[in-house]
Automatic annotation (TrEMBL), chain A:
Domain spans labelled F-box: 7-55
Entry protein name: F-box domain-containing protein
Pfam families the UniProt entry points to: F-box (PF00646)
InterPro entries xrefs: F-box_dom (IPR001810)
Domain of life from the UniProt record: Eukaryota
Organism: Caenorhabditis remanei (Caenorhabditis vulgaris)
UniProtKB/TrEMBL annotation, chain B:
Single biological process term from Gene Ontology: ubiquitin-dependent protein catabolic process
Every SKP1 component dimerisation domain range: 113-159
Alphabetically ordered keywords of this record: Ubl conjugation pathway
Native source organism of the sequence: Caenorhabditis remanei (Caenorhabditis vulgaris)
UniProt keyword annotation of Cell inner membrane present: no
InterPro entries: SKP1 (IPR016897), SKP1-like (IPR001232), SKP1-like_dim_sf (IPR036296), SKP1/BTB/POZ_sf (IPR011333), Skp1_comp_dimer (IPR016072), Skp1_comp_POZ (IPR016073)
Protein family according to the UniProt entry: Belongs to the SKP1 family.
Domain annotation SKP1 component POZ: ranges: 14-69
Coiled coil: none
Database matches in Pfam families: Skp1 (PF01466), Skp1_POZ (PF03931)
Keyword rRNA processing tagged: no
Protein name: Skp1-related protein
Amino acid sequence: MSKVSKPLPLFRLPTLLLTKIIRYMDLQEILLISLASKKSGFIMRSLLPRNWFNLKLLFYIKETEIVLGAKGPWAPVRVKYENGGDLFKLQITQRLENVFYQWAGPQLQDPVKLLLTHFATVFNPTISIYFGDICNQEFVMDVLPLLKQLNLSVKVLKFWDAQISPETYKYVLDEYREVSELWLFCKISSDFEYRAGPDFRVDNFRVGEGHWMHLEDFVNCKEVAVYNHHQHKQPKYANLEEPRALIRKWIESECQLELFTVSSFPDKFDFRLVLQGQGLRTIEQTFSSHSVEIIRRSDGKKALVTCKWGFFELKVID
Amino acid sequence: MTSPASSSEVKYLIESSEGNTFDVSGAALRQSNTFNAMFLNIGADGPIPFTDYNEATLKKVFEYCEHSVNEENYSGPKHQDDLSKWDLNFFNEMDQKMFIDVINASNFLDIERLTSYCCERIARMLRGKNTQEMIKVITLPTAEELEAKQKVEEKKAAAAKKVAEKAAETAEKTETLEELPVQQLVQTTRNKLTRKYLSFSNE
């Protein structure tokens, strides 16, 4: 065994031994061996534990990389991005920048799709994907449907300055209504309309440009933050009725909402007006802020509603 | 040949696939969990048949066990860089076929230390290599081989199931383990291990 004379028939060993062997391998080695052929990919899949892997994909000008992580002792594998002029490349590298494997294509989505397909087959990871400033409409709509097609579970989906159409924006709201984190920080036209149903249950939902939002629609999310980043003069929610409807809905339903913050800045709508004449118990009132306590009918749970110039917050406290 | 309260001086006779027998000390043999499960408490009157493995392989495996008798309790695999000169020689003097036979026998005998070293050694053969280099180190199976392997495993599983059912029936009839003949004990333990292996594979 000191000198390897001929290839080792590794995959003829019993499955139990193969399972032990891969525990001694780095995740990168497992990935590389799975890339040797379609068959070795399937074998590695059968040896790997289920529900252990997660894949984080970041697409920003300053930082584009893909990271395969795992539970247990395996260190994450970083797939680097390189834009080599005509070719977009995703590379697995080793020390001294040796390229061990690469996916490449004339458009960024080409290597990304190849990589996703392979990772889905072998690792079936959960997905966290960050569509940043290098993403356009075509890229997003090439990647998102593929995730569905590969039956990958998306946990985190964030858009930050990605250019997407209203149709894609709506597609995201329709298709990813139960993810852990959904952040939509991208431009959306002033006339965009959307109503979310009670099955919209994102744990952490943040919207950079929330002018289109009916606040009460999102009461089944756990945490919601709404901003007015693109400075719409009159966001739909900056009026008396929208926050009041949210408060009423929280009092009357059994929703899972824990925190809802709304900012209309730079529009300085006076949210304190929302609380006037509603017969709610004031907890604190200062020159700039008004806080009231509300109690849910069904279970007596309490929440604190705080209103300021340009700011509204509903926070469950008990 | 043995007594239940065996000391390190107690020798056991091991029978290989060729029908040859040779001595192994109780202390060495106790590193095998398979042996412990079968014979430790009840002893064995006659050669212990490990007849799926040839004499050379079994001798090699028990050479390792004899050597590591006095090593401290096993606490996970050593890093290969920490292996002693003796350990390195032990691995280096094996050809590939012997190495494969040894790892398979060690796996069956459930000798944790040796199996772990072998597994780590294989993992190290792939370390620092790219996919193309890995292909030179390992043989990738053809579709036919994969299919054949699957068929063999299915066949083995079916046979093991059949034997296990039969053994369960026999066990019901037999009041104590001591009354079981050695061959049947070996078979019963094999069945148990096979079931364990199958359940692990299906996880």
